[in-house]
Amino acid sequence: MQTAPFHHEIADGPEGAEAWWLRTDDGVRIRLGLWRHEGARGTVLLFPGRTEYVEKYGRAARDFAARGYDLLAVDWRGQGLADRLIADELSGHVHFFDDYQHDVRAVLDAAQKLELPKPWYLLGHSMGGCIGLRALYNHAPVAGAIFSAPMWGIRLTDLVRPLAWSLGWGSRRLGMDHFYAPGTQSNPYVLSEPFAANKLTCDEDMYQYMIDQTRARPALGLGGPSLRWLYEALSECRKLGRMPSPEMPCITFLGTDEDIVDPVSVHDRMKRWPDGTLKLLEGARHEVMMESPTTRTCVFDRMADFMDGVRNKNTARQPSIATS
């Protein structure tokens, strides 16, 4: 682990954030960011969504710190300051979706080396929810799972879905899978979509926060997904959808105005999760941790209540020590 750059001036997070470079077991360099404080009751392992980067969660780190939890976040391969995987560095690309599990293993190894306070809790947002669900099947050492608008399916119309499958499959065989998926472009979403039309948040201040970060540090920006990423993501969602839910306490947050991931897939999964709870957020869009102040307070309070509950339940299960 080597020290990596961290852009404190755009994160607006707690003081003392740290960042490191990690080398995955397949040779890709990724970046890790950590906000920690004395007396933390546990650590949130944040698996961000596609296009995201560590600094985007500076304000979330404040919310978790106020509730007694440290926050560890990662720049996945192909985004943030991690290694970009093809010549077009603005294309969201991955060779195989399971490659993200190399990153997960590096993050978990680093968390162990850093001796981060336990229990650990997995928090997967959007694409990170898909990666995180697979990590649970791979026995990630966490006490509970939290998901925010998890990508367990991608919202596509009935007309577009078969086209996405066929283009993804065919472009790979023609050596054109690095091209952008239809309807997407190289310009980062927040720099091309006006607030009034955006699908991420109803809160103008939080949307401006994302815009300001991307303008201040263009190297963090990412455009649309490649055809290869789209095909790999659709394939992984299909595989995961056929699997039973993990034996793990879980809470999932979903906005009623979600228009990026497929809400049907989220509802279906949570109906099949015996120790799981689905919390619907009225009027919220995709970024439930970056919504209006009222919604954010609700989300972070419920997350903290969930983690406290898991921790207390696990403590109660510990065998008592008899004294004479």
Percent of residues in helices comes to: 25-40%
Gross morphology is globular
Query: Low-confidence runs (pLDDT<50, min 5 residues)?
Result: 320-324
Please compute the radius of gyration using only Cα atoms: 19 Å
- Strand adjacency order, main sheet: 1-2-3-5-4-6-7-8-9
Jot down its keywords.
nine-stranded mixed β-sheet, single chain, 324 residues, 10 helices, alpha/beta, Rossmann fold
Q: In terms of topology, how is this protein built?
A:
Elements: E1 2-3, H1 8-11, E2 18-23, E3 29-35, E4 43-47, H2 58-66, E5 70-75, H3 100-113, E6 120-125, H4 127-137, E7 144-148, H5 160-173, H6 189-192, H7 204-216, H8 227-241, E8 250-255, H9 263-271, E9 276-281, H10 293-317
Parallel strand pairs: 4-5, 4-6, 6-7, 7-8, 8-9
Antiparallel strand pairs: 1-2, 2-3, 3-5
Describe the model.
The structure is a single chain. The chain has 324 residues and is an alpha/beta fold. It has a single domain (2-312), classed as Rossmann fold (3-Layer(aba) Sandwich). The protein is 36% helix and 15% strand. It is built from ten helices and nine strands. Strands 1-2-3-5-4-6-7-8-9 form a nine-stranded mixed beta sheet, with helices on both faces. The longest helix has 25 residues, at 293-317. It is globular.
